[in-house]
């Protein structure tokens, strides 16, 4: 049994090559399709999504569109299917008049990847035009002496010509009417006709002759309208009317007839409108010179348009970000640019650059596309936004340039902890303050933005003795103000040391701490305690006791009033041990004076055998109080904080005397500050 052999027909082979070509092109960032001309709007061209290996959900997520070049758009991209379709009916003859292969180009941009892919679509020809003649009626004036000949066109190109099958005889027939039919090779073939009238003239011996068979003219594209490009010259050896030559353009297009004008008498060609090198860089005309006898000659005129740097580069932002996080990695794409110069050669060579000292750089993407990417780490606290200028400069003389501005806002990341305005805080607080009194304010600043910079405060560490910090001080979360929750007592608390934490609103939150020292300042809030003499009616054992310094030889009422005019009274305010030391020092000084003036006889003496020098100075006072005193009681208001001096040797203490009926003023020392 013979194996079946599958034969690929022409259409299948063409389709296979298209599929393979699209797959090969996709691998290199270039897709290629072909479509016949004159297809209706919305006709399928190619499955771009499939050829780029993109799934339909990805298309919607990443963003998928055709790049806009600001020109006529011949194609559209279907957003739901990823198909490339025609955006309008395409006429190949209109787009590619003198081009053998008509190719249209466009680009697809994938927004999420900032990636661009090129697409080439070849527009194939269909037999949609019949042959046509410029004029419906033609008239040829031929001399009866014209010889039979076939001429090649200028440059060797062949062209259809009307030739004589036999010699003409004007006397036999002065006019011949013919119909010329042209037929193309299309399927089905199309035809065109023209009526031809041949007028037979009387004999003319010489035909016009051009000075050149071909004329080549180079002209810049910015030549002024109305300028003469070239003047053709043809001569005829005949005389009179047979030697008069007229010029005409035999073969031209509608476009060329709109651009150039030939003077039939002078043979000069002038420009009717501005030339554009980018639109068409060359034109070819066929000019005929004819005399009155019907003799003619032809010449080819080639007009070459040279480029002038008359176009500045175009910079288009095809895709861009409006904001970027400050922690974006180096190399993040922020914009996709298309840079194009319609000029050619050096005039069309473009160099692109960015502003100096910006954290971005340019990278070549695809053909005329560039990507703007980050070149280093961003810091919003340093620069919160950028206006980056992209400049394109061509190589023409003089050079032309253009620019585009990218505006980019840097988004904040919580990368800064709050910073207190001072390294540490301290305040002096008077005792007996009111509960709720403002103690001080702490202030922290966060360099971040928005919620990342919102700072809240709270107590962190601290305390006094066994009391909880939260029972003594509070901090307002929003303002950092510290308030007292109770009244401080200097005799109980001299100093409060605590820590305040400032925490921002970022996620995760960042924080910092600062120490706060509150120094409690003493106030005169304790009245002096008169220890002796006791007040009238005081019960024994009351919260006071005193000492009277007196000689054993004194009689009641015998205390001299001249030298010691006041009672010496020990009064102690239970405020501070420092005040007690100060009181003892004053007491020692008074005892020294008293010792010299009252207690000792002229020849010296002692108190019950104790030398007087033993009671001089602070140590002497202490010894005196120890030997000759009752009890020294330090009473702190109602809290009964007492310092007791042991009355172990009180047996030597003089008995206390009741106060006199009219005592002298008492001197009470108050050690409150």
Q: Can you offer a commentary on this structure?
A:
The chain has 673 residues and is mainly beta. Among the domains are: 13-124, Cadherins (Immunoglobulin-like), CATH 2.60.40; 209-306, Cadherins (Immunoglobulin-like), CATH 2.60.40.60; 314-411, Sandwich (Immunoglobulin-like), CATH 2.60.40.60; 419-521, Immunoglobulin-like (Sandwich). It is built from seven helices and 43 strands. The chain has a five-stranded mixed β-sheet, with no helix packed on it. Helix 6 (577-599) packs across helix 7 (617-627). The longest helix is centred in the C-terminal third of the chain and has 23 residues, at 577-599. The N and C termini lie far apart (129 Å). Residues 1-28, 544-550, 559-577, 599-608, 628-657 and 663-671 have low confidence and may be disordered.
Strand fraction equals 35-45%
Summed up, the helix count is 7
Over the alpha carbons, how many angstroms does the gyration radius reach?
Answer: 59 Å
**Low-confidence residue ranges:** 1-28, 544-550, 559-577, 599-608, 628-657, 663-671
Terminal CA distance reads 129 Å
Give the strand line-up of the largest sheet. 29-37-36-32-33
- Name the structural class: mainly beta
